[in-house]
Amino acid sequence: MCKQILLVIAFFQLSFSSWSQMELFNRTYDFNGSFISNAWLEMLVHNDTLILLGSSKSSLNTSIEIGLIPISNSNAFSINSLWFSSNTKYTPGLGTNFWKSPTNHDLFITGAVKSNNLFSNGFICKTNIYGDSLNVFHSEVDTSDFQSSIYNHINGTITSAGAKVNANNKLDLWLVKYDTSGTLIWENTFGGVESEVSYSLDKTHDGGYVIAGFTRSYGAGMRDVYVIKTDSMGVLQWQSVFGDSDNDAAFTKSLENGDILLYGGSVDPITEETSSFMRKIDSLGNLKWHKKYGYSLNFDDALQAIEVTFTGYLLAGFSVDSTDNNPLGWLLKTDFNGNELWSRRFRKRDSDNYFRDVLELPNGDIMLCGFVFSEDTLSQDAWLVRTNCLGFDTLPKANAQVEVLAEGEIRLENLSKAWGNCIIDWGDGTSNYVYEDYSTLIEHSYPNSEERTIKITAMACGAEDTMYITIVPSTVYMTKETLDQFSLYPNPAYERVSLKIPAFQEENYVVSFYNNLGKKMDISPTATSLGFDINTSTLPPGIYHVVLTHKNGMRSNKKLVIQD
Fold it and tell me: Lowest CB count within 10 Å: 49, 225, 227, 381, which one?
């Protein structure tokens, strides 16, 4: 089939907006040497500095870590350690446990402390951003913890939610308020005949509190989502339970309009498959909507942190890929109705990767923190990732390849990376504006055979990368159908084999030989008027694969048998 060939030539051009030049990164941190578990757990922004709450654990004790990172210069990083006595382990809770006073450098950290591997107590730690001022007091209630807290800088109080053991040796959900010197102001417990546990606490629009976690006393499953609403004095106003036969648990986030978000994970007690969810309830605990997320039934997903943005919700946690059964860091973006907009997964190490918090920076970038298992898999390293507004930790990269379908007909495969939208300028006065979820294969027709330059611009959050593909007219043109018509003779072959190629021009083709194990063989084809002649006398008998590659990128292959 002799028509018109299109020669494809590509080159690239990179450009940025001013703020997008700020560094994106994906890094780990080892605070105190090997065989120690390290993790970043929470983040907050003060002025132009990211402040991180972390922990280091050894076999004997723990330290609380305070990290300081200027937003504009991630290399100017400092870590301050707060060490406690031996055989004492301080662990921040699952929910929000990290607060900064807006009037000074004071930080407040809450969680659980265990001494000599005996009972645990809730603790409140007051320090500063440099870690050189330390005041810690314990709840003095055996077998208790604080999983989430709220600091009120106006009246200098801390309200904490957690769990403590009751007289029946079951756990009650526990809500308690202290002043910053450790004096108890009030406390209340909630629950039924079995155990209830708090995961997170938030302040509601009316000055009260909402607490979420799980219950074993109420509901349909072994564990169901348990959410309670109290007034400002911790007095119960209502409680709701959500779930089915699965094991369910949730964190919570209160919204300005009075609605409440519940997000977390569900585990099927039979299949042990795990999925993630988000629910929105109104100010009285009535369900407004319920969304489930995940890549498929073969992935294990759990959401542990949320950030409310101007365009929707950012959620972070982990997602387990069944191909290697290792958790990956997971970042999910939804609209305000819980509909998924995009989803990213991150792998820093081959072993477990977990996100514990997510934060939107003032310029729209996204910060994620957590931990990964180190290469020796015996310890954990803290993990910090900065992405752009679309969750990519790299800048956009334009890439594409073109396949000729017929005269004036082409198919472009968009292979761009880390982009939110692309503009494809076809060089004939027309263009396509495509989004991330658009098909990667796009066909286009030209009215004539003039030289064209296609411009592919990949964009993300103000940064863009451009690639140009020039299509040059020539004398003949090759389709995949035509390329597949090449022949081998004789086959089986002995000492020589000839490749006959339709509309043959030597400069358009490359011939490769592979054995049946995929190893490329060393051959030297000789061009003839009809194709190539190849000496096969040096190749041992067996089955080979002859791959013919056209310079436009198309390939065809055939099987060749070589005999003694």
Answer: 49
| Cα 299 from Cα 324, distance rounded (Å) | 11
Q: Looking at the 3D structure of the chain, how many domains does it have?
A: 2
List the Cα angle 492/494/495 in 5-degree steps.
140
Residue 398 within a domain: no
Whether residue 497 is found in the same domain as residue 550: yes
- 556 with 494, same domain: the answer is yes
Tokens in use for 378? 């015996």
The string of pLDDT tens digits covering residues 57-87 is: 776 667 788 888 887 777 777 888 776 666 6
Structure-token match 């997903």, residue found:
301
Q: Alpha carbon 26 to chain centroid distance?
A: 11
Give yes or no: residues 519 and 466 share one domain: no
Task: Please report, for residues 155, 253, 302, 524, the alpha-carbon distance to residue 356 in angstroms, rounded to integers and kept in the order given.
Answer: 29, 15, 11, 57
**CB of 199 closer than 8 Å to CB of 147:** yes
What letter does residue 507 receive in the DSSP assignment? G
Q: Which two tokens stand for residue 526?
A: 């000789």
Residue 404 has pLDDT above 90, yes or no: no
**What is residue 60's predicted lDDT score, i.e. its pLDDT?**
67
The span from the CA of 548 to the CA of 509, in Å, is 7
Region of residue 406 (left: phi > 0; alpha: psi -120 to 50; beta: else): beta
504 and 455 housed in the same domain: no
CB atoms within 10 A of CB 75: 8
Q: Tell me the pTM.
A: 0.79
Mark which of 423, 455, 472 sits at the end of a domain: 472
Which residues are registered as beta bridge partners of 255? none
CB atoms within 10 A of CB 340: 15
Residues 188 and 196: beta-carbon distance below 8 Å: no
Assign 224 to helix, strand or coil.
strand
What is the predicted pLDDT for the residue at 1?
30
Q: Residues 513-541: what's their mean pLDDT?
A: 90
* Mean of pLDDT values over 234-262: 93
- Computed over every residue of the chain, the mean pLDDT equals 84
Q: Which of 75, 67, 62 is nearest to 23 (CA)?
A: 75
Backbone angles phi, psi at 483, to 5 degrees: -60, -35
Find where tokens 């020796």 sit.
376
| 434 and 491, same domain (yes or no) | no
- pLDDT tens-digit readout, 460-500: 999 999 999 888 665 345 677 888 899 999 999 989 999 99
What's the average model confidence in pLDDT over 209-227?
Answer: 91
Domain shared by 465 and 485, yes or no: no
For residue 140, give the 3-state DSSP assignment.
coil
CATH of the domain at 444: 2.60.40.10
pLDDT over threshold 70, residue 118? no
Percent of the chain with pLDDT over 70: 88
Counted residue by residue, the chain has a size of 564
Judge if 468 and 484 occupy the same domain.
Answer: no
Residue 556's domain comprises 480-562
338 is a domain residue: no
In a domain, residue 511? The reply is yes
Assess whether pLDDT exceeds 70 at residue 12.
no
Q: How many CB atoms lie within 10 A of CB 484?
A: 14
The tokens describing 402, both together, are 């073109």
- The answer on pLDDT for 241 being more than 50 is yes
Alpha carbon 105 to its chain centroid, in Å, reads 32
